[in-house]
Please model this.
Amino acid sequence: MSGRRHAPIALSCGEPAGVGPELAVAAAQALDGALPFFWIGDPRHLPEGSRFAEISTPAEAHHVASGTLPVLRHDFAAPATAGQPDLANARGVIDVIARAVALVQSGEASAICTAPIHKKVLKDGANFAYPGHTEFLAHLGGVERVVMMLACPELRVVPVTIHIALKDVPTAFTPALLEETIRITAMDLKRFWGIERPRIAIAGLNPHAGEGGAMGHEELDWMIPLIERLGAEGFDLKGPMPPDTMFHAKARAGYDVALCAYHDQALIPIKTIDFSGGVNVTLGLPFIRTSPDHGTAFDIAGKGLADPTSLIAALNMAAEMAAKGDT
Model:
């Protein structure tokens, strides 16, 4: 990341018919030039009357008037109607993501912040071959395994297994997966947050962390041995912890990140603590990627109801990570 501290952040447009375009404009207005970023997309997709300025290179984002959205133009096949996705624009969405990655890899951008996409639209319109945004970014970055972290000022959480049925979690939640997640999480908390030895809390899979085997044996059979082995390597690990007692304020003060066995175990606490301001961060990539923690919201797109809080938080977090990564 050396030399990239002052490069602006690339904001991909996401699904043009979703809330992404209007949130980009709102974020530019709210940040008022305090954080240099630029939006990659088709100016036709921005709300009517938006204050924006086309740029020809990312560096020009530094010179756009405060409150104005810098736009690196990327022409799409069709205009966009809020709330009504057009399959003709699917290829453009994919190409913008790839363009953003190329810009950060070249050093012209310091990080990527991605607006929400709609996976079914991309699959139906452009034969998108990836389960989601994150897997495509991993492919572009040349890595096989990445980790999803949700973060807000009060809490960081990592779901070790993500979008799978609850009945499949005990099979998917393996020693190898947990170990790999611990290593990637610790590496990036050191690299991008400057935490030399991250304190990692690990939630038990079962209620009460198994309660000595009365409510499940995974904790005794392999979680405790794994935690002890990695602790001997120098990792600062706590757990397995009872999931129902590890997210109150006093408990949170004892760790830097909580690793959870499954999706809702991680996302319920962070969305309860900060529903609007949570940020999705992808760990394990060779570049910085953040995203607002919400979807395309077709139902409210174009109605002036979308809240830019999460996008602003995602842009700010990307900038903070880039600064730490430079040091």
Notes: The domain at 154-273 is CATH 3.40.718.10 (Isopropylmalate Dehydrogenase).
